[in-house]
Automatic annotation (TrEMBL):
Pfam families: Flavin_Reduct. Keywords: Monooxygenase, Oxidoreductase. The keyword Oxidoreductase applies. Belongs to the non-flavoprotein flavin reductase family. Residues 18-162 form the Flavin reductase like domain. It comes from the Bacteria. It is an enzyme of class 1 (oxidoreductase). It comes from Lutibaculum baratangense AMV1. Its EC number is 1.14.13.-. GO terms for molecular function: FMN binding; monooxygenase activity; riboflavin reductase (NADPH) activity. This is Nitrilotriacetate monooxygenase component B. Transmembrane segments: none annotated.
Amino acid sequence: MSEATLAPHDPRAFRNALGAFATGVCVVTAEVGEERLGMTVNSFSSVSLDPPLVLFSVATAARGIEGWRQAQHYAVNVLAWNQQDVSNRFARAATDKWQGVAVETGVTGAPLIAGAVARFECRAEHQYPGGDHLIFVGRVLRYDLPRPDAEPLVFQAGRYRELTKDHDMTVPADALWLLGW
């Protein structure tokens, strides 16, 4: 089948199909000059173990895109299941996102959200155009697991989900493809 015979692109249907993939929820934070940046993302992924690289993406139409382009350091905060309010707060534009949010300052100067499951402090390494998004790749300089036993906040099909079952399913040691490495 050639690409010419495929159905026309339907952005809403494509988004719905992507929504079938469950993701964790993160808040990416940075400080650029006197301005604190923060936004909710589910486009977070590992890139490399050596060197330690991660990525996230931002819509090029986002109000804060210029601040993110300028950020030399940022933190990715993996939210816990009970941090839906934090996710909702940082998902909205033009609000005081930081009021009432407990933060610490990381070694890079980026704000770290208290109560997160894991936090990755990064140095900006690369920016790549990706259609209507800009892909940011960061080198992890420091990470921590403040709540290693907490359940993560999960998003799928347009809503938050709760992990409800532990399945005792062993991943074969040689199945590195499953882990992406």
